[in-house]
Amino acid sequence: MIIVTGATGPLNGATVDHLLERVPASELVVVARDPSRAERFADRGVAVRRGDYAEPQSLPGAFDGADQLLLVSSSDPAADAVSLHRSAIEAAVAAGVGRILYTSHQGASPDSPFRPARDHAATEQVLADSGVAWTSLRNGFYAHSLSWLIGPWRETGVVTVPVDGPVSWTARADAAEAAAAVLLSDGAYDGPVTIAASESPTFEDVAALAAQLAGRDVERVVVGEDAWLAAQVAGGTAEFMARFTLGIYQAAHAGLFANEDTTLETVLGRAPRTVGDLLLS
Q: NAD(P)-binding domain: which residues (predicted)?
């Protein structure tokens, strides 16, 4: 049996959709904090159980019977993500889960300037210490994030960044499809696995591509970290969130989101979607 958490969200929800194309609904279970939000899966014959990382007592029963368990990572920047993940992993061990899969992030490292990458690295260590077989899906930075990271370039003709660096922008839809394939691979992928596009354009490259696609000039401008932070706060962004976002650019500048690994293409059996595909949409 495959049990999937976070299926009411866009990533693991799409993964369940892909699984349903290949396995009977009776072999799947989804776990949600609010089961009423998972009705579309219940309507297709998938069992729905209630479970909440913040309520550890709800988890062992929710995970019972899992040969494989796909844990979605916490997306709340204000939460103690590692503590939540640890509760889920400990519950999975108590439930006798055969393999734990976890949605991590490319560049997971205790030294990353991007805070979620540090949380993912810590969670991967919890998995490694758990004694259970595990797979960490290190997804590339989701390409739809470009819509806010590069700003209103169509109107301004400018992409303003604090610093520049390469990022292997990855379609969330591709990551979801890949997760389903890994779940059905009979344990072929163990430990950290990079699920990211193999091309890593810089923001300057993205601006050049945007200009080509739009048929107009688009300039990439690097303003520096302090000036960028000040502009974000002046524009109404809370300083906490501005610094959180700055960490993305800093990690890119350090090369932590660059990738040449072709595992995603291998898993999908086709070329992943590109930045150009996103900009055209």
A: 6-183
The domain of 82 spans 2-139+171-195+260-273
**Separation CA 69–CA 133 (nearest Å):** 11
CB-based contacts of 173, cutoff 8 Å, min separation 6: 14, 273
Token pair 């072929």 in the structure block, residue: 188
**Residue carrying the six token digits 């939540």:** 84
Q: Are 255 and 117 in contact (CB under 8 A)?
A: no
Assigned domain for 236 exists:
no
281: pLDDT strictly greater than 80: no
Overall pTM > 0.90: yes
pLDDT digits (tens, 9 = 90+) for 12-52: 999 999 999 999 999 999 999 999 999 999 999 999 999 99
Cβ of 193: how many Cβ atoms within 10 Å?
21
